[in-house]
């Protein structure tokens, strides 16, 4: 399996698998002063896809989230995903639902599809009606410019406070055919285990049985996107979609087979790469953090412990300050819900052991300085109480985070 | 009942009730460069007290926490509380327990008490052994300077990154006698529902039956200190103690009586005042936030909703930026676990309604500007789904918070 954040061909991200095209348009959703900014993205498959989704668990759900959930619940085939940035179409009342449906209809009309085959996503400010004339013009412009080279533009159009485009691709042999998995994501702030202000789209040309695809996505999400914590907040619009169009050929992949495991690993590699890119580009962050907790009785405890450490504002501040503060890590572990005994606990920062046997260890300051000069800081914990382990991703807490979020417009 | 943050007499804080004296000493716990800083505090009752305590639920507990828990579990009478700041005596192995016991013994020796009648608390950096010669000199110096005027100095000696002394006093008639409740606290960072790096000491001259006192403290704590969230972290040393010495006279107060309710309200007034002072002096905060959520099916949901809002980094950043961002408040409510329907939800910021009927409302910008110019911002929510309500306290998130916590020494 080969994974790369950017491929060398023109088929980037969601366009890497066969049979997918994408495009973007600048519709002016954010107003005239942002007229040139890409803000509508379209993904189209040339044949019907089996689709799966994971959505925000926030009780306050944006209209497009509700519409897309209903579409998936009907088990309809999916042809297209239409996305706008700059406006979340959340807390917009009945008008919001009408607007989300109009986005689907306009997409279907422009792509010779059925409105019931179109998934809809929005991200941006909440509580304001979508500027529908602009959005619909954007949909039509995007539909007119679909191409296999449109993956990068589409990934750019979904960005809000992101500073870089995030795409990933993996290839994997499934039986006799080589299948490809591609993805793109936007994130930045408000990302948490419950999937917040996060949009991620994964495509594959593998042929997959419907319920197997949903199980695969739910499982992969629990180990990847749901282990990413930027600030503990969750939003109204989070959506992770996986579309499989079968263009690579072969028999449908079903659960419990070696093919299922192989494809699942490829999807996980793409999602892990996207998660690491999201952590590295988190709002106001200067470093990403990856926490791995081993030695737990079960996976749930291990993940809870890893998430609690990566989400601790004091640990995040310490990483920002290049401070090997084992005390804050140990304190976070102690309140995580995971069983622990201080005597058996070991803590390594960037491979340097800073705590063991119930005590802080003398630390080579040069080695620690080198650890904190890297763009990603790895914290490894062994609780010495079992075989299970879990990972979580996050970022440091910088003054810049506060500036960005204090100035964001209501 | 009269409550004031500072009383006009010399009997401040824990010295306000009859029969209590206090003092402080500068022992140099933080090293020679801080030789003049008060860092040892002593509270002494001239007669045995019934005592109750609430302690950190973190699995990593500092030695003094374990020692004080054991003392209370023996149901022994208590005479004194000895506290040092500058060093938490946490993660210090067996030596830590010996040192905590030596603090109790030295206090007992200096005050003609039994070591089993002394409660011990520490706060400060963790993982370093206490400088015991200095600490013991400080204990003896504090014992030599006990007075009814020592409440303010004691409150100063327990401070770490706090910038102001926090004390409170309330008086209440219990049967035929006037009883007084006094308190002091230190906090600043790492404060959360599970009681973190928070020390609070409450004294009363009321006469109270032992189990009633513990029930009272646990209940009051659940509505006050456990509703205070600064940054979501919890520490190894949190301790809330309540000492009742009966010096005011009268029959012992027992549970379920009007006297119990009256005394409980006075204790809650003192604790609420301390919580509001802690929120106002939180690390790096420029404003405190009080959230009240009404219209819930039960108190647990109401408190969970209030805590989720007050702890949201995005809400905290918005308050810092003087942004009436109802969207972040509504999104926090949606993930809090409380039942809600957006149509019935109302949100007021500083009394100005910003959201109602499922929609944002037009806001008078001058009125909102006035709200955010106050040192405390009140957020009031009505979920319209029941009779229960709950409160939570916190603070804004400022760039200064990050600076303080990135620079704190390991």
Structure summary:
The structure is a homodimer of 410-residue chains. With 410 residues, chain A is α+β, with helices and mostly antiparallel strands. Chain A has helices at residues 63-73, 93-111, 132-144, 151-157, 210-223, 258-280, 299-311, 313-320, 326-334, 365-372, 399-407, and strands at residues 2-4, 20-25, 40-55, 78-87, 118-125, 167-174, 177-186, 199-204, 239-244, 288-296, 346-349, 352-356, 359-360, 376-382, 388-395.
Task: Please state the CA-atom Rg of chain A, rounded to the nearest Å.
Answer: 22 Å
Give helix % range of chain A: 25-40%
Find the count of extended strands of chain A (DSSP E, 2+ residues).
15
Low-confidence stretches of chain A: 1-7, 190-196
- Biggest interchain interface, per-side counts: A-B, 62 and 62 residues
Classified in CATH, the superfamily of the largest domain in chain A is: L-amino peptidase D-ALA esterase/amidase
- Major beta sheet of chain A, specifics? 9 strands, mixed
Indicate the CATH topology of the largest domain in chain A. L-amino peptidase D-ALA esterase/amidase
What is the CATH domain class of the largest domain in chain A?
Answer: Alpha Beta
Task: Report the principal-axis shape of chain A.
Answer: globular
Number of helices of chain A: 11
Number of domains of chain A: 2
Main traits of this protein?
26% strand; globular; homodimer; 9-stranded mixed sheet; alpha+beta; L-amino peptidase D-ALA esterase/amidase; 410 residues; 6-stranded mixed sheet; Ubiquitin-like (UB roll); 2 domains
